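Hey, can you fold this one?
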Amino acid sequence: MNAMKNAAHLAVLAVWVVLGVLFSLKTLFLPALLPIVLFWAWFGGYAAFTSFMANQFKNPLSALAVHAVTFLGLNLVPKAMPFGILRVGMDLLF
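Sure. Predicted structure:
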């Protein structure tokens, strides 16, 4: 059962990686590389947080639920500073 939970967690993180690579390639030719660095720093924090939370549960569906709740929770955070730093990766992508 742990392998299925890890596979579900990996699948969701892989989607974020693909979106991040596409974003990086799109903005690679801009003079400022700060958005790329900001996204990958945000993704590192997001991956660490969701990995920690997914390890608290045993069910594979709970790993998907952790990602869904985190995504919805980040969408509820206002875009105003200082809270906007929590959702900078999503704002850069979408």
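The radius of gyration is 14 Å. Let me know if you want another pass with a different chain boundary.
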